[in-house]
Specification:
The complex is a heterodimer.
Chain A lengths: L1 H24 L6 H21 L1 H10 L1 H33 L4 H8 L4 H28 L4 H27 L3 H29 L22 H10 L7 H22 L7 H5 L3
Helix pairs in contact in A: 1-6, 1-7, 1-8, 1-9, 2-6, 3-4, 4-6, 4-8, 4-10, 6-7, 8-9, 8-10
Chain B lengths: L1 H20 L2 E7 L2 E3 L2 E4 L5 E7 L5 E4 L6 E4 L4 E6 L5 E7 L3 H4 L1 E5 L1
Parallel strand pairs in B: 1-4, 3-9
Antiparallel strand pairs in B: 1-2, 4-7, 5-6, 5-8, 8-9
The chains are: A mainly alpha, B alpha+beta.
């Protein structure tokens, strides 16, 4: 039962961290709870569909459907995270000009975070589908183990949600002055890690050349599948054996989103975007 | 742009060329165990694993020692492309049944 809980926990850990970062990044935005809720709901529905059609997906693209599907959702998430960062940056600059106009601040703040809702949905869909498949496997293959599956699954779920909440409230402890700077860079790192992972899936599918496997190998110290490894994998894109192309995608995303965000987010006057967003 | 298209074509051609040469190995999963539980593959080249899952439950092929992650639905056969590995002993397993499925990969 504990083994079941641990596997479910590991599968949903990444999604829990992504949701908590998104929640912290949209603090104070009106209606974000609803949009994150849509993302969660869509993600759970999607996870069940992906799990149900896992067989069909695996057979697509001469047996490489799974890798291509995973890479595709990763790159969609990267695009959404990038769009969000740049939009926030540009928006911050526009708003800085009219700082103090309370009405505009509120209407700007109430713009729903569609892009981030998609990211939440994708994170839940990808990680959730593996948890659903695993639990379904127990239910289908070992009917006498259904109790183990339900209790273990719930324990894992509670653990994942608890970790997400801890992360969220931990982030909220950061002073409001710095919170959005921190979450913006967390989102950029998240996007870079996802781009790297997307590239890794394309290498697995033989679509991209690796240009050299395992630039370094830290799997003896910290495996990708361990709880800490998965956490760092989500937060900063840790990989125990990254290929050259994976690192290239990581760096390119970091530079692209980072520079665009910085470029658009630079206020014309020394007025920070944060202050604007905290207008009442 | 044209250069980019050319590069892409070369990429696809080289990928297809590599496909034909990759040595491939057949494995099965039964009662959450891989068979053979120990397999020897050549070093420094990409290798294809054709893994057939004979169990009524899905499995997730994974390794702590090299990059590979793929779900094998119940009753299906999937192809897993392993990265080129240096000589040594590696492990792989089914993430859903790690203890039972732990297997050895010998790279020579």
């Amino acid at each position: 039962m504990l083994a079941t809980a641990l596997i479910v926990f590991r599968e949903i850990l990444e999604a829990a961290l992504v949701v908590s970062i998104v929640m912290a990044a949209t603090k104070g935005v009106l209606g974000r709870g609803l949009w994150v809720g849509y993302g969660l709901g869509g993600g759970i529905l999607g996870a069940s569909l992906v799990a149900a059609f896992a067989g069909a997906i695996a057979q697509l693209a001469s047996g490489m459907g799974q890798e291509l599907f995973n890479a595709s959702v990763m790159f969609i998430a990267v695009a959404m995270l990038g769009w969000h960062s740049v939009w926030m940056g540009r928006h911050g600059r526009e708003m800085a000009r009219d700082l103090g106009t309370v009405g505009r601040a509120v209407s700007a703040g109430s713009r729903p975070p569609y892009a981030l809702a998609v990211v939440v949905g994708i994170a839940v869909l990808r990680e959730g589908s593996e948890a659903v498949l695993f639990l379904y496997g127990i239910a289908a293959g070992e009917p006498d183990q259904t109790g183990r599956m339900i209790v273990g699954g719930l324990l894992g779920l509670v653990g994942g949600v608890a970790l997400g909440l801890a992360m969220y409230y931990g982030l909220l402890r950061i002073s409001t002055k710095h919170l959005f700077a921190v979450t913006t860079w967390m989102i950029v790192l998240l996007a870079a890690g996802m781009a790297g992972q997307g590239a890794a899936f394309l290498v697995q599918a033989d679509v991209l050349p690796s240009l050299g496997d395992a630039v370094w190998n830290t799997s003896r110290v910290l495996t990708d599948s361990s709880v800490l490894g998965k956490t760092l994998h989500t937060l900063v894109g840790y990989s125990a054996q990254p290929s050259v192309v994976q690192l290239l995608f990581y760096a390119a995303t970091l530079v692209a989103i980072g520079s665009l965000t910085w470029l658009y987010g630079r206020p014309p006057r020394p007025v920070s975007a944060d202050q604007r967003r905290f207008a009442p | 742009m044209r250069l980019l298209a050319l590069a892409f074509c070369l990429l696809v051609i080289s990928a297809v060329a590599a496909k034909a040469e990759d040595p491939s190995f057949s494995l099965t999963i039964k009662d959450h165990r891989f068979s053979p539980a120990e397999i020897t593959i050549p070093a420094n080249m990409r290798v294809r694993f054709m893994v057939k899952n004979l169990d009524p439950t899905p499995a997730e092929f994974e390794s702590d020692d090299f990059k590979a992650e793929k779900i094998i639905p119940a009753g299906q056969e999937v192809t897993i492309l392993l990265p080129a590995l240096k000589p040594g002993i590696y492990e792989f397993h089914d993430e859903y049944n790690e203890a039972l499925s732990k297997s050895r990969l010998i790279v020579k």
